[in-house]
Amino acid sequence: MGTFKKWKHGLYTLIALAMVLTALPRISLTGGLNWVNGFGIVWVLFALLVIGANLHFLLGVDEEKRKTLERVRRAKMKQWQMKWDKEADKGSTL
Questions:
Q1: Which of 27, 48, 55, 92 has the fewest CB atoms within 10 Å, measured from its CB?
Q2: 51 and 13 in contact (C-beta within 8 Å)?
Q3: Apex 41 CA angle, 5 and 49, nearest 5
Q4: pTM confidence score
Q5: What is the mean pLDDT of each run of 10 residues along the chain (94 residues)?
Q6: What pLDDT sits at residue 75?
Q7: pLDDT value of residue 68
Q8: Quick one: 44 exposed, middle or buried, by C-beta within 10 A (0-12, 13-18, 19+)?
Q9: φ and ψ of 28, to 5 deg
C-alpha cells in the first residue's frame, strides 16, 4: 500500500473533521426542526460517513480482510487439490 494513499486519506479525514467541527456549533435545534436544520444534520452525517470511510482505510481493515480471504482461498484450493488427487488415484487403479 502506497504511503501517498495513506497521506491522502489522512488529509481527507482532517479536512472533513475540520468541516464538521466548524459546522456543529452553527446548527441550532432550539427553533425546532426545519429545512435548514435538517439539511445541516444530514450534511454532518454525510461528513461523519466520509470520516469513517477514510479511517476504515487508514486502519487497514480492508488489508486484514483481504489477507483473511486469501487464507480461506488457499485452504479451499488445498482441499480441492487433495480431492482431485484422490480421484486421480482411484482412476489409475482401475
A1: 92
A2: yes
A3: 20
A4: 0.60
A5: 79 93 84 83 92 88 80 92 86 64
A6: 93
A7: 87
A8: middle
A9: -115, 130
Give the number of C-alpha atoms closer than 13 A to the C-alpha of residue 41, restricted to the C-beta side: 9
Spatial separation of the C-alpha atoms in residues 40 and 46, rounded to whole Å: 10
pLDDT of residue 2: 65
How many residues make up the chain in this entry? 94
Q: Considering its fold, how many domains does the chain have in total?
A: 1
Residues 6+ apart with CB under 8 A from 20: 44, 47, 48, 51
pLDDT score at 17: 94
Task: Output the pLDDT for position 93.
Answer: 61
Contact (Cβ atoms closer than 8 angstroms) between residue 27 and residue 41: yes
Range of the domain at 48: 3-93
* Terminal C-alpha separation, the chain: 52
